[in-house]
Amino acid sequence: SVHTLRQIPRRMMEEEKTWIQGRIAFPIYYEDTDFTGNVYHANYLKYFERAREHLFGLDLIRKLYDMGLHFVVYSIDMKFIAPARHGDIVEIRSKYLLSRSPVVRFEQDAYIESGKHLVTAALKLAAVDRQGEPTKIPDAVVAMIKERITQLEQP
After folding, report:
1. Is 147 helix (H, G, I), strand (E, B) or coil?
2. 36 or 2: which carries more pLDDT confidence?
3. Nearest CA to 117 among 46, 44, 49, 67?
4. How far apart (Å, rounded) are the C-alpha atoms in residues 29 and 146?
5. CB count, 10 Å around CB of 47?
6. Residue 125 DSSP symbol
7. For an engineered disulfide with 106, which of 82, 123, 128, 144 has Cβ 3.0 to 4.6 Å away?
8. Is 34 assigned a catalytic role?
9. What does the pLDDT look like over 76-99, one tens digit per residue?
10. CA gap 23, 109 in Å, rounded
11. Strand order of the sheet with strand 89-98?
């Protein structure tokens, strides 16, 4: 979801330089396209959301929800390079910069099977508590995310 947040202090935006990376691919259905046969531009937001969920994993997302920690879109910058079409297989490549700060960074890109680059996005998500206030990411959550990295690295 998209929320408006008050200014987050710069001291809370310090970053650790550990990237988590993942990929997920899925077909483009007719319902994803507009009248031109190209993927409707707003659908990339859904594809990127699915890829972020896949990167974290449902178990971790449920644990975060139970802890009262949520991530909301703070900002997004997207560039549309080329269209995907009905029947294409789109691969979303995601990178997440591990951080304890309330603002976390994602870089996501969409490609088709031929390797053609379709869309690039730079996102900032804010960690918020149950009241919707920005909050630092607890050390226990960082540890759970690092454990997820280990799971992703296993064959």
Report:
1. helix
2. 36
3. 44
4. 34
5. 23
6. E
7. 123
8. yes
9. 999 999 999 999 999 999 998 888
10. 10
11. 18-27, 89-98, 103-112, 117-128, 70-80
Extended strands (E) in 5-98: 18-27, 70-80, 89-98
- Name the DSSP class of 121: E
Residue 132 Rama label (left phi>0; alpha psi -120 to 50; beta): left
Q: With contact defined as beta carbons under 8 Å apart, do 64 and 148 qualify? A: no
Which tens digit of pLDDT belongs to each residue from 91-124?
Answer: 999 998 888 889 999 999 999 999 999 999 999 9
Residues 152, 155: Cα–Cα separation, whole Å: 8
**Distance (Å, rounded) from C-alpha 89 to C-alpha 85?**
9
Distances (CA, A) of 152 to 31, 54, 55, 141: 31, 10, 8, 17
* 8 Cβ contact list (under 8 Å, min separation 6): 74, 102, 103, 126, 134
- Nearest residue to 136 via CA among 8, 1, 12, 48: 12
Q: Which of the residues 34, 59, 109, 139 is marked catalytic?
A: 34
